[in-house]
Amino acid sequence: MPDPILRISGVDVRYGRTLALSDIDIDLFEGEAVGLLGTNGAGKTTLLNALSGFLRPAAGELRLFGASINRCPPHVIVRRGLLHLSQERDLFGDLTVHDNLRLGSLARAAKSFDRNLERVCHYFPRLKERLRQRASTMSGGEQQMLAIGRALMAEPRVLLFDEPSAGLSPLFVQEIGAMMQALRKEGEITIILVEQNMLLAAQVIDRYYMLRAGRIVARGPASELEKDHEELAREYYL
Ligand code: ATP
Fold first, then answer.
1. How far apart are CA 189 and CA 173, in angstroms?
2. What's the CATH code of the domain at 217?
3. Strand-pair category, 215-221 with 207-212
4. 160 pairs with which residues across the strands?
5. How close are the terminal C-alpha atoms of the chain, in Å?
6. Domain span at residue 15?
7. How far is the C-alpha of 168 from the C-alpha of 163, rounded, in Å?
8. ipTM for the predicted complex
9. Is residue 167 part of a domain?
10. Total structural domains in the chain?
11. Considering the entire predicted model, what is its pTM?
12. Coil vs helix vs strand at 81
């Protein structure tokens, strides 16, 4: 078996005295897509923030490409190839779509701006039509596409998605699902997807972990989600 590119072992994360994550173990192999599922407050965003360097684990270890990232600041983790798409999207609203994409490619000194721009426009033709539009004037779904496009400009090796479907219309959710499937087919990227939309998750991921109150309470292949998602939803969400 190859070494995991991302290894989370025995990780606890605290907010002061509150234990938000307890003893989390996840291995992620190159080219895989893994889902993090669970109710509000289960600890999913906390885990993404720990991976991207915004929070430090109180115990355990995070290893990316074999090296510890427990003490790395966020910009170093980005440079090593792990990008986190937060729910806030963090776009520069006054800048154009094109300039937001350019800033994305600077985050990691990506080699070919033109080739990456072409790729992003291929995934999201809607962005191609709007390269000169100010980001703040785009719809929520378009802004989500721009945020994903900007991350892709940095040629990430690992992408963390935090509920990309939140607040979007079914049409945009479908487009984002299709884009993630296409991205996976290229096979160069490894994905962690936090998602409450089980149908979207089941389309994209290979395996899932279910979190509740900061602990992993279930794990399994995506096929279980398709088959049992109503049962899982009843058991873990309600
Ligand atoms: P959601 O789907 O609502 O984003 P989540 O699974 O991502 O939920 P987290 O946001 O990781 O959950 O929160 C996990 C727990 O940690 C919750 O109990 C939350 O209240 C708590 N928490 C999150 N951020 C902080 C913070 N900055 N300070 C204190 N507690 C926090």
1. 20
2. 3.40.50.300
3. antiparallel
4. 84, 192
5. 37
6. 1-79+195-238
7. 10
8. 0.94
9. no
10. 1
11. 0.91
12. coil
Each residue of 83-130: pLDDT tens digit?
Answer: 999 887 788 888 999 999 999 888 777 678 899 999 999 989 989 999
For ligand 1, which residues put their CB under 6 angstroms from it?
15, 18, 20, 38, 40-46
Task: Calculate helix-pair angle for 170-186, 140-153, nearest 10 degrees.
Answer: 10
Q: Which two tokens stand for residue 31?
A: 């080219």
Instruction: Write out pLDDT tens, residues 49-92.
Output: 999 999 999 999 999 999 999 999 999 999 999 999 988 778 88
Residue (of 46, 55, 189, 160) closest to 147 by Cα position: 160
Q: Given ligand 1 and candidates 18, 22, 215, which is best to mutate, with the most ligand atoms within 8 Å of its CB?
A: 18
H-run or E-run covering 121: helix 113-123
Residue at 49 is within a domain: yes
Closest to 152 measured CA to CA, from 192, 185, 124, 172: 124
Residue minimizing CA distance to atom 30 of ligand 1: 15
